[in-house]
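Throughout our pipeline, every protein is held as a single compact record rather than as scattered files. This encoding replaces a full spatial description with a residue-level series of whole-number codes. The remainder of this section carries one protein's record, kept here as part of the documentation.
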Amino acid sequence: MRSLIETLAFAGSPEQLAAAVHDTRGVMLLRSLEPSGSAATTVPESTPCRYSFLTARPFLTFRSFGSRCEIRAGKGDAFQVQFGNPWHLLDSLMARCELLEEADLPFPLGGCFGYWGYDLKNFVEPRLPRRAASDMELPDAHVGFYDSLVVFDHSLGTTWVISTGMGDDGARGEARAREQLEFWKERARNCSPNIARTAGDDRATTWNSHSTRDEFLSGVARAQAYIRAGDIYQVNLSHRVCVPWRNNGWELFLRLGAVSPAPFAAYLDCDDFVIASSSPEQFLRVSGSHIRTRPIKGTRPRADDPTRDAQLGYELQTSPKERSELVMITDLLRNDLGRVCEYGTVMVPDLMRLERYAHVQHLVSTVEGRLRSDVTHFAAFASCFPGGSITGAPKIRAMEIIDELEPLARGPYTGALGYLGFNRETQLSIVIRTAVCKGGNAYFNVGAGIVADSSPEAEYEETLAKAAGFFQAVGQGACAAHPLLNPG
């Protein structure tokens, strides 16, 4: 059978339909949001703001904790445990779900949606240590295999529902496809025009962090010592802030989207925790054999005054430190793509473009190539993982130093989030500007790229600029109350 694709009679927003299925198992919303105000004119057409995707009710759920992988079929709580390399297991699961004879469309016809956390690096480079404490006890990966989804085309103002009829054994049935189709059509008919919100304390007043300001500055100094010794050219260091959060993750997702819109906003219901993301950075876009990555390096805050805002952008574009940082990472990603692409196809069509978002502005490059015929999307994903823009160069040694200098495991942070479609349409973002809501708290990591001439204080201030949207979303618009600013 062929996948069922129908226009959905729905004039509301992706958030409104997501709210209508909010209590359904495994809801995931990948929301493309245009930056607000003058920023909208500075993001290139290649930034994928055209489509948003909503899915729910996976026919298979995969979670990994190191080499222990849990695979749950259907609606029940029972799961099968397998031990092995999560990348290989996921690749084999995906192989039985491929829909290569379907219509050639620029969005997924069902697929594997979820996140792949930073510590999956240990299965890409097995010699890496794993010393950081996993205090939040999150799975390294949480993904679902979905046979239906809703596609919102923001360019045409059209909404489609797609149903493949796929089951957990890879077989397809028209009855299942029709049932899933009706599920979405019914939710659309009964959708409220209001977005579901939650009641609760709107203002976060107490903060804590695993790292004080002085501890972060000390980590920068140690990283620069490694740079002077010739171990690395650059490394990304991060710290994590935590705030009590009585509202749920859906509320935080809505707030992040309101105050810090970005092309890769996402809401993921992961059973016992929620991910709310407002990431600006594309990790990989793979369409058939064409693969592209868009690393971000260099950051300045936005300013309300247009003249000052332009000055900050010019300062970023002309900074030798920021430019060299991005050139290093662009070259690193050329090498990453070169391992999986046809010889001579890797190129850099865009180098050091200035892009502005609600709270920050960045320098961005584009690297692209053509995959070899023997490389699957999962294999390409694993080979390039994690993104070089959030590790450093050389990549492996930078990751060793991160493990030494950061006491807590990053979890989803600086991993990847998005989908690998059954029809070989893949899109993944870097997990930055992202909150994890679990156990009554919201956690938010922020980092900075450290090079030889970095100013530790300036790098620390850069991390706070990146957290500005989160601070505002949780009700602390002026982040002066943050204890990292007042280490005592």
